[in-house]
Recover the amino acids of this structure.
C-alpha cells in the first residue's frame, strides 16, 4: 500500500480541552479522503498540524515520506492548502495574488487559464478584499493548486459557494484525482463527503468515531428508515406511543412540534396513521441516508 499521509497517535491539548485526542489514520496515494465532523470537532486543528502550522503535543505525522514538523520547509513544495482562515495581504488584486503565489514557488502561472477554470476572469483586476465569500473561496483553491502539488488539503472546501459553484469545485476535485493527486478534505456537508470522497473519517470531540466509505458507514446504522411528522400530542405521550410501535428504535424532537423516528423493516407506516389520538400531520417517510448517519452519531449518540 502506497501511503501519502500517515498520522499516528496524534494529540493536541489546550489546557483541559482535548482538541485532538490520540488520532491515527492513513491516506493512500491518489485517494480523496474526507474528515467529517461538527464545528469544533478538531478537523481544522488536525489539518493545521498535518501542514506543520501547529505542533502536536505527541504522535507523528508523515506526509509524502516527510515529517510534518522537521521537514516542513521541504514539504511546502509538495503540498497545497486552502484553509478555513486563509487570508491575503491588504490591497492586493486577484491577478497580483496569483503572480505572487506563483513566484513564491518559482513557477510561471497560466493566469488566464486559472482565472477561466475558477470562473474569476471578470475579477482579475478586482481587489481580493472586495470579492464575495464564494469568489474568495474559489481564489484560495486556485492558489492552493498553482504550484502543481502532489497532495492537497481543503478545509471546508465548499463553504460560501452557491450550488452551481459547489458542483464546479467538485468536478475540479475529480479532475485532480484523475491526475493522481492525493486530496484530504474536511467538511460538515455530508453531500460533499458522499459525492467526492473515497473514504471518510468521522471525528467528534477530538476523537475518531468511525472510518469507511459513506455506503459502509450508512449501513452500520441500527435502522433503515426515517419518518418525520408533526404532532399535537405532547412529547411524553408521543414517546410512550412510539415505544409500543413494532420496528421503531427511537424518537427525537427536531423542531417545534416536529419529530423524527428511526425505523427498521418491521415498521408499518399504517401503524402511525392509525394513531389518530396523537394529532399527526405532514408525515414523511424515506430510507436512511449518510446525512442520517452523521446526525445519529453526532447528535443522538454524541
Amino acid at each position: 500500500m502506497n501511503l501519502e499521509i500517515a498520522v499516528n497517535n496524534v494529540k493536541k491539548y489546550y489546557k483541559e480541552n482535548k482538541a485532538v485526542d490520540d488520532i491515527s489514520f492513513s491516506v493512500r496515494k491518489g485517494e480523496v479522503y474526507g474528515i467529517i465532523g461538527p464545528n469544533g470537532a478538531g478537523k481544522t486543528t488536525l489539518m493545521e498540524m498535518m501542514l506543520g502550522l501547529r505542533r502536536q503535543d505527541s504522535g507523528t505525522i508523515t506526509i509524502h515520506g516527510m515529517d510534518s514538523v522537521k521537514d516542513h520547509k521541504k514539504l511546502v513544495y509538495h503540498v497545497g492548502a486552502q484553509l478555513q482562515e486563509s487570508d491575503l495581504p491588504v490591497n492586493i488584486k486577484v491577478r497580483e495574488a496569483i503572480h505572487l503565489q506563483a513566484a513564491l514557488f518559482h513557477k510561471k502561472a497560466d493566469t488566464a487559464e486559472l482565472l477561466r477554470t475558477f470562473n474569476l476572469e471578470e475579477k482579475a483586476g478586482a481587489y481580493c478584499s472586495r470579492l464575495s465569500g464564494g469568489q474568495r473561496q474559489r481564489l484560495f483553491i486556485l492558489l492552493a493548486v498553482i504550484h502543481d502539488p502532489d497532495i492537497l488539503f481543503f478545509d471546508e472546501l465548499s463553504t460560501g459557494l452557491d450550488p452551481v459553484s459547489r458542483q464546479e469545485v467538485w468536478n475540479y476535485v475529480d479532475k485532480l484525482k484523475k491526475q493522481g493527486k492525493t486530496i484530504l478534505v474536511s467538511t460538515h456537508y455530508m453531500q460533499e463527503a458522499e459525492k467526492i470522497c473515497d473514504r471518510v473519517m468521522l471525528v467528534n470531540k477530538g476523537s475518531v468515531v468511525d472510518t469507511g466509505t459513506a455506503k459502509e458507514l450508512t449501513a452500520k446504522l441500527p435502522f433503515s428508515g426515517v419518518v418525520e411528522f408533526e404532532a399535537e400530542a405532547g412529547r411524553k405521550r408521543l414517546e410512550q406511543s412510539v415505544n409500543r410501535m413494532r420496528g421503531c428504535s427511537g424518537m427525537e424532537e427536531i423542531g417545534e412540534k416536529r419529530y423524527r423516528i428511526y425505523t427498521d423493516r418491521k415498521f408499518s407506516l399504517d401503524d402511525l396513521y392509525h394513531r389518530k389520538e396523537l394529532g399527526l400531520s405532514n408525515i414523511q417517510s424515506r430510507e436512511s441516508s449518510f446525512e442520517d448517519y452523521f446526525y445519529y452519531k453526532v447528535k443522538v449518540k454524541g
Q: What stands out?
A: The mean pLDDT is 92. Residues 3-218 form a domain with the Rossmann fold fold (CATH 3.40.50.300). The longest strand covers residues 3-14. The chain has two domains: 3-218, 221-301.
